[in-house]
Every structure is written in C-alpha cells, then in structure tokens.
Protein: Hsp40 co-chaperone Jid1
Amino acid sequence: MLKKPNILCCGGGLQLLNHPCLSSPPRSRAFPSQSRYSARRYATASHNPETDLSWPSSPTFTPYELFKQDRTAPYSKTRYYEMVKIYHPDRPCSGHPLCRDLTPEVRLQRYHILVAAHEILSDPSRRAAYDFSGAGWNLHPYETPIPSWARTGSSNYGPIYANATWEDWERWNNRHQGKQQTLVDHRTFATFVILLTLMGGALQASWISKLSSGYEDRLWELNQESSRLLKGRRENTQHQMQSVDARVQHFLIRRDPSGCGLKEEEQPVYKQVLHSQKSSDDSSAEVVGSERQDGRVLQDSVQAESSS
Structure:
C-alpha cells in the first residue's frame, strides 16, 4: 500500500511535503539560469563537426555535403532531424543564429532541399540511382563525378547493358581500337570549306561573265560579216543587172546554179520561149534596118537637090 503513493508521487508529480522523493530538491532548480542556458544551447561551426548544422557555403552542393555524410558510410538521420528543427517553416526561429537572418521563403526552400536530400539518401535504390547518374537531385547541379562512359560525347565505352544508342554500340564495337586522331579541327575544316565555296562561286561568276561577253562579241562579228556579205551581193547584183545579158545570166545562174543543164521536160519550153524572143528580135532588127535605109535615100535626094 505504501508503494503506490511513491509511484504516484514520483511519476505524477504530486507535491507531498513528507514524501522522500522531495526530501532532496533537484539540482536543476538550484541554478535555473544554467539549466535554461544548457537547454537552449545551439550548435555552431565552432563546436564538434559532428554537431555542425550550418548550411553549405557552396551554391552547388550534394546531399552528402548537406548532411556531411561520407559516400561509403551508412545514412544517419540525426543531422536531418536537427536541421529540420531549424528550417521547418512551422517552427519559430526564436533567435537561432542559423535562421534568424533568413526570410521565410529561404527557410521554406531549404526545408524542401532537406526533405529531397533525406528521401534520396534514406532509400537505397534512390541513393544508388543518384550515385550512378544524379537522379532525383534537381535543385542544384550535380557535381558527383560521373563515369566517363556516361558523359555526353564521351569516347569511352561502358558496360554492354548500358548501350542505348547507336553511338554507344559504336564505341562498344571499337573498344579495342585506338582513338582516332583529329588531324584538323572541325571549325577550321568548316571555315576552309566555306572559303573554298566562296572562291569557287567567284571564279564561276567571272567565267560566266567572260563567256557572256565573248558570246556577245562573236554575235556582233557574225552580224557585221552577214551585213557585209549582203551588202556586197546587193552591189554586185545592181552592177550586173544593167545589161540584158547580165540579167539572163543571173536568171540562168539562179535557175541552174550547179550548171548541169536543163531537164528533158524543160527543153521544149525554153526553146519556144527563146525562139519567140529571137524572132521578135530579128523583126525589130529588120524594121530598124529598113528605116535606116529609107533615111539614107532621103538624105541622098536632099543632097542632090541642093547641089543642082
């Protein structure tokens, strides 16, 4: 019966004057200021590094750097809980040296970063994915060394199960061959090709201009030569057409330029035309001769009368 009041006194805090539990007052009440100071003691960088809760000074850091956690060591939630007490937006800062100069927005952002880092390191699968490719850590650039074969544009080959593109398979197939040496820089080669194209275009333009000018000169010479030829033929024709024989000769030349003669069916036609022309010429000649003779007779008679 006496043990129950003892339990109630010690556990429930009943202040009985004659209870042995209150015979010796607790030491914490003797120095209230010291107990309050010990309860409100804050961890800063000057204390033990294990209790250092300061935020990383680098703008880009990893979850390991945030919790000061070794990569090969198992994850401990102690620092996470302590830092959540500082940066949780629902907890008052109460003049804490690590949060009293921070705005509520910055505290909320840091709290989200703490939660993201905790979720990565507390889950073995997510931690392995982060160590492999930095998956899940999007708030800051990933600075953990990435395998050389996993980097963009790398010439090193990785495990065969990591091949996803044709470039990966090409590196895998050429893994035993030496690295190809780049004789000329790609930019230099591209610049050379562009300059060569411009020079070729300039030469082509000059050649086309010369060709067009030469064609125009040749055309002008042909026109001049044709004009001289036509002018000479016209002058020769006008000069030769002054007599009847020249006209006949010109007609015959045009009619038979090869000089092979007339065809069988053309001979009677030409004989008839030429015979009629010859008879008309003979009659006209006889008329002219008779007229000349009559003129002479008349002239002789006139001379005889004048002499008598």
Q: What stands out?
A: The radius of gyration is 64 Å. The chain is about 60% helix and 0% strand. Residues 49-144 form a domain with the Helix Hairpins fold (CATH 1.10.287). Residues 4 and 10 are 10 Å apart (CA to CA).
